[in-house]
Write a structure and sequence with these properties.
With 139 residues, the protein is α/β, with parallel strands linked by helices. It is built from 7 helices and 4 strands, in the order H-E-H-H-E-H-H-E-H-E-H. It has one domain: TIM Barrel (Alpha-Beta Barrel). The radius of gyration is 20 Å and the shape is flat.
Length: 139
């Protein structure tokens, strides 16, 4: 935040910065999940966010995105967020249908992909289409 390229008194600048910031805490370990209710109750937090992929690795269940334990973990995060009047988040879960389910269950903050993943997917779609057209209509 640059305040129109002018200096502000510290009290005013800090208040504006505080208002403009979003504080997101991620739950990515079993220890974090065990304490999610206490973590979500900390004043000043805006989002309690489940790092699905990292938590699965920590659970010893990498890639098991539909495992009942991770589904229950997401529901627990949602419940903790609601109980404290903050937003529930979901990240590290890159399947559209699972993301839709999470949103319908109460997730309001979603991190879905990285910029590299989006660019790679678009480039792959583009080159696949080129190859298919060249194969179907050779010169």
């Amino acid at each position: 935040m640059h305040f129109d390229f002018r200096a502000l008194p510290s009290r005013q600048a800090l208040a504006a910065l505080d208002e403009a910031c979003v504080v997101v805490l991620m739950i990515e370990t079993l220890q974090g999940l065990q304490n999610v209710e206490e973590i979500a109750a900390v004043k000043g937090i805006d989002v309690i966010h489940l790092g699905t992929n990292d938590l699965l690795v920590n659970m010893g269940k990498p890639g098991e995105f539909d495992h009942p334990d991770i589904v229950a973990a997401q529901l627990r995060v949602i419940k903790a967020a609601k109980a404290n009047g903050i937003f529930a988040g979901c990240g590290g879960n890159r399947d559209v249908e699972r993301q839709v389910r999470a949103i319908r269950e109460g997730v309001q903050f979603l991190t879905t992909q990285t910029d590299i993943a989006f660019l790679t997917a678009a480039a792959s779609d583009w080159t696949t289409a080129l190859r298919e057209r060249l194969r179907d209509n050779p010169a």
